Amino acid sequence: MSKSLRFTPGSFLEVDDLGGGRKVVLVAKDGATFWDAMEVERVTPIVIHAELHPAELGTLHDLVAKRGLTHALGAVIAYARAQLDPRIDTDPLLVGRVLWFLSQKSEQRDPYVPDDATVRWAFTQAEAQAHAALAVHEQVEKYLTQHPNHA
């Protein structure tokens, strides 16, 4: 078994999603595990392993500053408020994921100001990452229920 890694609690990481892509996760308070969904009643933090090829994105401030997303963050907040979406205030992982997706579209332009369609696309992509994470956790829970000796 490989050694787990430590990162700054509350920061974002980009990790392999084990399906051929990458995803954004939030480092837990212990610095050695991450949350891949903010539904803490339904998911368990996952140990950060080198096999996941973690890349530090930093805090929300770091992500915004390093990728020139100051104006994009404003657009994300405005879009969420217009949609009456409370997650902008309660789900930091969603916000980090939306910004990560927008950073892929920004081409490092500063200031990068995405239009509403691009922000909506980024929200959809971020929500898909959360749904995929929940589906994996549900499969694990189902397996452990059916195979109690592996719990």
Blueprint of the fold:
Elements: E1 12-16, E2 22-27, E3 33-35, E4 46-47, E5 55-58, H1 60-66, H2 70-82, H3 87-90, H4 92-106, H5 116-146
Describe the structure in your own words.
The chain has 151 residues and is of the alpha+beta class. α4 (92-106) crosses α5. It contains five helices and five strands. The protein has one domain (12-150). A five-stranded antiparallel beta sheet has the order 4-3-2-1-5. The mean pLDDT is 88. A hairpin with a 5-residue loop joins β2 and β3. Helix content is 46%, strand content 13%.
The main β sheet shows up as: 5 strands, antiparallel
Order of helices and strands: EEEEEHHHHH
Number of strands: 5
Strand order of the largest sheet: 4-3-2-1-5
Give the distance, in angstroms, between the N- and C-terminal Cα atoms: 18 Å
Descriptive labels:
151 residues, alpha+beta, 5-stranded antiparallel beta sheet, 5 helices, 5 strands
Summed up:
This protein has 151 residues and is of the alpha+beta class.
